[in-house]
Amino acid sequence: MDRQQEFVLRTIEERDIRFVRLWFADVLGGLKSVAIAPAELEGAFAEGIGFDGSSIEGLARVSEADMIARPDPSTFQVLPWRGDPRSGGVARMFCDVLTPDGEPAMADSRNVLKRVLSRAAEKGFTFYTHPEIEFYLFEGSPADSVGDGRRPGVAVHPPVPVDTMGYFDNVPGGAGQDFRRDAISMLEAMGISVEFSHHEAGPGQNEIDLRYADALTTADNIVTFRTVVKEVALQHGAFASFMPKPLADQPGSGMHTHLSLFEGDRNAFHEPGAQYELSTTARQFIAGLLRHAKETSLVTSQFVNSYKRLWGGSEAPSDIAWGHNNRSGLVRVPRYKPGKAQSARVEYRGIDSAANPYLALAVLLAAGLKGVEEGYELPDEAEDDVTRLTSSERRAMGIEQLPASLDHAIALTEASELVAETLGESMFEFVLRNKRAEWVDYRAQVTPFELQRFLPWL
User: Which residue range or ranges hold the GS beta-grasp domain (predicted)?
Assistant: First the structure.
């Protein structure tokens, strides 16, 4: 038993932890959980906990259903909202999903990201990420709302935002302000550092930015973040939605994510004296993100609703372009701190808040590394608002656009060697099959008017 495992067992005893929740994510990024007694934890570290993998979406076929969840002791945290002096505390750890032979399961989302991170490490790189997570707060509970879609014969009750404020508005005593304070306190109690928080542009829309961390820690933190936010919202008599476009006439919720590669303590994206202080590695990485954006969009924007956000305006990126301090394209090069080497980074604006963070970061890293490995040439930057360009102007500048619908994204991803290699064969096939079914189901639910009028954006 290593020191980290010993620390976990000692902490559980000292803090009177009565239940330990073992967490992992399914192929969509949904949280799965099993609770075990502390007495079983030493065995779980050694051998894992067996479960039926075929009952978890996208994890295993019935013929290979036996799977093992083995907790990662470095992710141990006490759940602050579950403490009760009368019944003891509750803690959690993320798990790696294994086959009965002890090999990493190919369809485990966390393992997919770890495989790509290992590839980067072989080249001397550590991948750091910093997500800006947007979401809406609505009154009541999800059961009070059906949504804003058009479904024949079903009463529509759009969700009601908790306020009517906008970007950076200060709301003294407002529900959002109290909520953010409590959510951040709970996140920090779990060791998740928060950098900023504020009201976003939509009514009831909030943004909380997590501090820079390595990509695996970031993905674990995002899964935890969504759980914490939902728990705190319930305590405030509201519910939180990470749906990419919950209100048709308001901004969608993205998860703009800052990316950088480090070689040891040196930021590989920084080069003094270069344009925008971007190194050749950074420029090639951006070129990889852009060239493979169409095929990776099925992972970074995985739902029908995701494409309503991408094509819904309000600074959502539909154009595959990059620019310095330009929020109209897919990739932005921020310069909040010019001259500071450690701050050199790129911002990818195509991920939404409902994405599976493990898979999204995996395909973005794979695309960027491809650009570095093959020396992709970065196209000219877009200096103006690309959303205002005509089709002919876009063609002249060589600017393409992201898929217009989930169906379009499926078609573009089917031929992607990069996404297939990154996800692995079984997960790649499941993602495609799952998304085809989602699109067919969606088409069966909407009216002919919607299909005819809005099909290019659905």
Answer: 15-102
